[in-house]
Design brief:
Number of helices: 8
Mean pLDDT: 94
Distance between the termini: 38 Å
Radius of gyration: 17 Å
Strand content: 15-25%
Helix content: 25-40%
Low-confidence stretches: none
Amino acid sequence: MADVWQDAMDHAVAAARRAGQVVCEALLGDREVMTKSSSVDLVTQTDQKVEQLIIQSVKKKFPTHRFIGEESVAAGEPCLLTDDPTWIIDPIDGTTNFVHGFPFVAVSIGFTVNKQMQFGVVFSCLEDKMFTARRGKGAFCNGEPLQVSDQEDVTQSIIATEFGSSRDPEVVDRIFSSLRNILSIPVHGVRSAGTAAINMCLVASGCVEAYYEIGPHVWDVAAGSLIVSEAGGVVMDVEGGPLDLMSRRIIAANSKTIAERVIKEIQSFSPPRDDAPSLLTQ
């Protein structure tokens, strides 16, 4: 089936590039903003338009494949990962960035078979950077091989994170407690690109040593998780176990050494899972 999945990946790259063009064009005009779970969980008509563009093009070529798309789930579709070939789509990772014109916006497309990532595509639209990875074949940016940083000293590292859309005081306290702990290691710095997918591509590129977050969704991290792994990095749960794509908890790092050191400082908690029946009420 290898040639079939390469064909699918080629299609994903082409679809991501077309989607990126739509995103860039939309940035030049007015962006109608709506909200989902809270006043800071934003969505635009462009998110919905791009997701439909990708799904329709894939359905035409691969009619038996399944989909998990951010806007489809928001509209009531189930978020269930099966053994069937499944496309996991975030039409605009970094919607808040997109709304404000902050220049980190990505189209993210992951593909699983038997619940295992087979390829990942992240297109950083405004940077015109196409990040790709195929299981066992390495990771690339615009065709050039990616390799994680070889830094093993966390005090010489940059750590990336995000702050999520929850404004629950207890969640905010845990997020900032983790941030304080990590800054006090001390590390060289903490960065936030505003998109999980790009943060993971920064790890894969060797620009930062680790990215962690509690709260991202499967469509935010699916593609990026394989890009990090294929660039020589590790992806794990924030308590050190194996990554569960539906758990909404992730650390992606250049090495297990860095990951485990950062994990010691994270005040972990468990948000509602993506595959939980109550997801749509969160």
